[in-house]
Specification:
This protein is of the alpha/beta class. It contains five helices and four strands, in the order H-E-H-E-H-E-H-E-H. Helices cover 55% and strands 15% of the residues. The longest helix has 24 residues. 21% of the residues are buried.
Length: 124
């Protein structure tokens, strides 16, 4: 026989977890900030830009150095996220060529939202 008290506790914990996840998700939402994501793998680049768009960021992607430089010049993003597959020489090029006002973020897919939110929060 199931203990109704334990069932209620499990239900309440589940609801609190969902509410906590929703609150955390709301904290990570953007406000339309334009973000350039640079990555070397099309599938990962698409997943990151889609995730950022679903969190209200205006995300654009670039796979090559030339494409990244052109999109930065044309789109003037407020932040640049550099993925793990981008080599050190390319990273140095981006840090040199991009505006010093742009937030440069070396991010992992699991931490990118928090890293991006922290970068924008430091400027407000």
């Amino acid at each position: 026989m199931r203990n109704p008290y334990l069932s209620f506790i499990a239900f309440a914990v589940g609801i609190l977890h969902l509410l906590g996840c929703k609150a955390l998700n709301q904290q990570l939402m953007g406000h339309g900030e334009k973000v350039l994501v640079i990555g070397r793998h099309a599938d990962m680049l698409a997943r990151i830009t889609d995730m950022l768009k679903s969190h209200q960021y205006d995300a654009i992607g670039a796979m090559t150095n030339e494409e990244a430089l052109q999109k930065f010049a044309d789109e003037k993003p407020l932040a640049v996220i550099i993925g793990g597959g981008v080599d050190g020489e390319s990273r140095a090029l981006f840090h040199q060529q991009f505006s010093p006002n742009a937030k440069m973020i070396d991010a992992h897919p699991q931490t990118v939202l928090g890293d991006l939110k922290a970068a924008f929060s430091n400027n407000r």
